[in-house]
Amino acid sequence: MIKKSIFGFVMLALAVASAATSYQVIFHNDVVVNGSTLKAGEYRVEVKDNTATIKQGKTVLEAQVKVENNADKFSTTSLRLNGQDLEEIRVGGTHTRVVFEKSSVATK
User: Fold this and answer.
1) What average pLDDT does the chain have?
2) Quick one: which of 34, 56, 36 has its CA closest to 46?
């Protein structure tokens, strides 16, 4: 009985660890991600492995990212832009930075 419980807990932990992490982000102005323009609005950003999927309605964009940990927690979610180009998302309440690579994976 204990072995089954432990096995179940381990499987649940692995499923949670491999699941995509998602964040709500609001773009107050149009932004460009690897050459594709995303209109101002609220988006869901899902990060799994080294790929971020940015979704709003039928708009879906995938981009290569690197997830980094900051020494201090970010107090609010903020964007780092170079002109209109999105370079990173700093996730409020966490140490997480999602850094966008220069080449995209795919646009749907």
Assistant:
1) 83
2) 56
At 4, give phi and psi (nearest 5°).
-65, -40
Q: How far is CA 20 from CA 6, 46, 49, 69, 88, in A?
A: 24, 6, 8, 17, 18
Per DSSP (E only), the strands in 1-108 are: 21-27, 31-33, 36-38, 41-48, 51-56, 59-69, 78-82, 85-90, 96-107
pLDDT 10s digits, 28-53: 999 999 899 999 999 999 999 899 99
Alpha-helical segments (H) within 1-108 = 2-18
Neighbouring CB atoms inside 10 A of 38's CB total 18
Read off the tokens for 56: 């709003």
Residues 12 and 31: their CA atoms lie apart, in Å, by 37
